[in-house]
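Recall that a protein's primary structure is simply its ordered list of amino acids. Everything else, from secondary elements to tertiary packing, is in principle encoded there. The following example makes that idea concrete.
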Amino acid sequence: MRWILALAACVVATAAAAQDLQAWEGPTPALELPDLQGRVHRLADYRGRVVLVNFWATWCAPCREEMPSIQRLRRSLEGQPFEVLAVNLGEPASRVRGFLEQAPLGLPVLLDGDTEAARAWKARVLPATYLVDADGRVRYWRFGAADWAEDPARARVLELIGRIPRKAFESAERSADGANRLRLAASAR
């Protein structure tokens, strides 16, 4: 029953595709999920960067249609304080891996197997996307597919990047690089 409702919501998202980004109200939910290699990603690890958090599923046609624009946006902002976290909703890792073999994303894919994160983020319709500023606060959200590589969505991302003082980004880069080295060293043990 839950999957039928999710599928219906996905169809509704297609109709809502023209919806603009909405201002987020309320606190930013926590996000701490493993990727396909088992490494845990925390939203707090991305402080100093603008983060696009996208909840999606392999069975969601609008999600699949939207992914290339998210990839184009990420590529176009390479070297900028910007990251994408593609959060798969409720599917087993084996299904996600199989999907990615057919359609590689080139994005960090996190697994929300129990859908707790989606509930906390109020991701009731797929795709559900949130723009998080460099301070770790959700600023904008939308349900439904968008062309993230084009205006007005791209303009919102650039607006948030433009608010980051360069010193803060450089400090966050060093901090994230150090944290990544510590994680790699711990996983090598």
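The radius of gyration is 16 Å. The longest helix spans residues 166-188.
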